[in-house]
Amino acid sequence: MALRLKSDFAPTFTNRGNAKASMGNHQEAIADLDRAVELDPDNGSTRFYRGYVKAHLNRHQEALADNDEGIKLGFDDPLVFGLRVFKPISKNIERLWPIFEAIKLDTEDSIPSACAAMSGLS
Questions:
Q1: Roughly how many angstroms between the first and final C-alpha of the chain, as a whole number?
Q2: How far apart are CA 62 and CA 2, in angstroms?
Q3: What digits encode the pLDDT tens for the residues 99-120?
Q4: What is the value of pTM for the model shown?
Q5: Contacts 24+ apart (CB under 8 A), 30-38
Q6: CA–CA distance, 122 with 102 (Å, rounded to integer)
Q7: How many CB atoms lie within 10 A of CB 63?
Q8: Which helix (H) or strand (E) holds 35?
Q9: Cα gap 66→24, rounded to integer Å
Q10: Residue 93: pLDDT above 80?
Q11: Which of 22, 56, 66, 122 has its CA 20 to 30 A from that of 29?
């Protein structure tokens, strides 16, 4: 409904793209995220989300380009940097979440879970 009322509102496409990605509909998610970038090319977080979805589709060079652009546009979430470092060496991105959480939390409690996650990487 929101897209029928305001079809040029980039956050709606970003949110719908993220929802589609979380349901595993990565190709459909890319279409929405492409539209969001078209409408708001200076939104770094949308570039990151699109890069994240592209990484799931094994489009790693495109994912890194989106991540780079997101960083240039000011999106500085630790996940951007974590994905740049770890994605090429892991086939299961979900195993990396403890590492990203440790980076975000930066507490002594988070270090053991990050180390455990890293020890299982191949």
A1: 44
A2: 29
A3: 555 555 555 555 555 555 555 5
A4: 0.64
A5: 30/54, 30/57, 35/10, 36/10, 36/11, 37/10
A6: 20
A7: 22
A8: helix 26-39
A9: 20
A10: no
A11: 122
pLDDT for the residue 122: 43
Predicted pLDDT of residue 43 = 93
For residue 23 the two structure tokens come to 């349901």
Token readout for 4 is 């029928």
Is residue 98 exposed (0-12), middle (13-18) or buried (19+ Cβ within 10 Å)? Answer: middle
3-state helix, strand, coil in the chain (%, to 5): 75, 0, 25
pLDDT band per the 50, 70, 90 thresholds, residue 55: confident
CA dist., res. 106 & res. 7, Å (int): 40
User: What's the rounded mean pLDDT across residues 62-71?
Assistant: 85
